[in-house]
Amino acid sequence: MKALLYSLSGDHNPLHADPMAAEIAGFSRPILHGLCTLGFAVRAIIKTICRGEKDMIKNISGRFLLHVYPGETLITEMWLEGLGVLYQVKVKERNKAVLSGIVTLNRLSTSI
């Protein structure tokens, strides 16, 4: 039911809401929107590395590696290298990487 909220924001992709469409595409059930996964990763970086200062973000890039099902637990691992934050998101239940990339910062937080 939560996946139906995607249609309110203009996402009419049936992979996110229709079990039959998801099955035809090879998934056991509807999948989470990739940008939702990316949003969770960037939120974790802002909270952890940027200490809540979202204006520190200069650029975001990522590569989607695998699907995520709604309700799965996402774990974001991150490593600071200069002004870049390398990150990887894993699904805890399947122990699989689903997203990786880099967030470039404008500056470092004064509290790191």
TrEMBL record:
Keywords from the named record: Lyase
Listed SUPFAM superfamilies: Thioesterase/thiol ester dehydrase-isomerase
Any GO CC annotation of this UniProt entry: peroxisome
GO function terms (MF aspect): (3S)-3-hydroxyacyl-CoA dehydrogenase (NAD+) activity; 17-beta-hydroxysteroid dehydrogenase (NAD+) activity; 3-hydroxyacyl-CoA dehydratase activity
Residue intervals of the MaoC-like domain: 3-98
Enzyme superclass (EC): lyase
Name of the protein in its database record: Enoyl-CoA hydratase 2
Annotated organism of origin: Handroanthus impetiginosus
